[in-house]
Each structure stands twice: as C-alpha cells, then as structure tokens.
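Issue 218. Parser rejects a valid record. Input:
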Amino acid sequence: MVPLAKAFAAAGRKALLVERVHVGGTCINEGCSLTKTMVASGRVAYLARRAAEYGVRTGAIGVDMATVRQRKQGIESAGVDLVFGTASFAGPKTIRIALNGGGQREATAPFIVINTAGRPASLKVPGMESVDALDSTSVMELDEVPEHLVVAGGGTSGWSSAGFSAGWVAR
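Output the parser choked on:
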C-alpha cells in the first residue's frame, strides 16, 4: 500500500485508495520502494561474494530471484479500502471515481491527497526496436540475474517516467 495511506489507517483514520491498475502505484510496484528492496538484496550478494577480502569464510553465493521477488512483494500490506478506477475532483472535498468495471462512486473526506507517480517512457534511440529491452516493470520480474544490464533514464527508479497513476483519500 502507499505508505502514507497505510500510516493514516494505522492512526485510526479511514483511508480509501483509488488505483487505476495495481495497488500502490509506481513507487510500490515498480519504483523506489521495490527497486531499493531489490538493490539491497544485490548489495548483500555483492558483499557476501567479497567476504574473503574481509576475512570472512562463506560457502557458494547465489541469488534466488524468486525469493528476492517474494521479499519485494512482502512489503505490501492491507488496512486500507481499495477501489480500482480513476478519480477526479467533484468538489472541494469530494472525488468522483470512474470504476474500472463500469459505474461511478463518490467519496467525501476532510483530507484528499493525490499521490502522483509515473510510467516508464520508451527510449527514443535509433535501433532500439531491435533490442530485447526491459522497463522498470519487466526488469523486476526476471527469473535470473542478467549477465549484463545497461540502465538508461532517470528518476527514483532509474527510468524516465511521467504521468499520473494513483490518488487516495483519507478521512
């Protein structure tokens, strides 16, 4: 869940999370939180492989990508009402939600927080269409550690991104 929504729920406030596609938006699913979780696993593997340089004896070091992904997914939690759709303001303290399955819903709250996120942008480089490229979503679903990886882009996930993906209401 979006950390702020989770904090509101933990503080006893009702929280409503509106998502277009997947819970938590970019930061939780493809962005900063998960990439940092996966980078931490990579750092541990790197240090374990260099243990002998520090006088520490270890056995063979390997990376189990399924366990890394499971750890990444484990940072998500419940405690917030979830609605899939697209929210827009209907008034100063009211949002209208166009539900993904059709229909609408409105919610009113004293606090409305819009949490913007992003989407990966395609790299505009000649010849790129002939390369098997990954984006910030697909790279985190790899079953094996790639032998080589070039990251192009910027932002907290290391990828160029723009756009709106999530908003939520706490009341």
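Fixed in the parser; the record now loads. The longest strand covers residues 81-91.
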